[in-house]
Amino acid sequence: MTLKFVESSRLPTRWGVFRIHGFLDPASEKEHIALTIGNVGEGQPVLLRIHSECLTGDALHSLRCDCGSQLEAAMKAISKQGVGAILYLRQEGRGIGLLNKIKAYKLQDEGADTVEANEQLGFGADMRDYSICESMLRYLKIRQVRLMTNNPRKLQALETMGVEVVERLPLQMVSNPHNIRYLATKAGKMGHIFSDGED
Fold it and tell me: How many domains does the chain have?
């Protein structure tokens, strides 16, 4: 899947001044963005976060997931490092969309876990497609990364597209009573890597 670069500009944030780069998927007309600080194309391993859109977590600060906290932690880390990138992918609800995500929430309220809820709606456990990262990374000239993730699928996706992951940096947030089961399902059913003794 090839995305088309559209435009870049400054994006001042509470964590520092990023550059925001806009990309368009001509096939789906979905818009994706990259946030960068510093010269990410110098050939050195770049601190990277691949983050799928989560309106409820990122913008509404939902406690049902750890997405918003992970995004903020990544922005802080990259700002502190002085060089890095976040690929923000428009793949809400692990790829099922916002309204279906709300339907999945209702099923979770009735006892299903996150995987079971998606499957009851007729979807796979995780419908995200990380191949869309390839053209974004190519545009940014990023070939080696220090990846902030707990998700082994992201490691595999980058390796498939020829991007070298020189280090995996855990991005583990403090759990709360609303997301304990969510995090346990990530680890138990989706293979996410968490530290021993923690959620």
Answer: 2
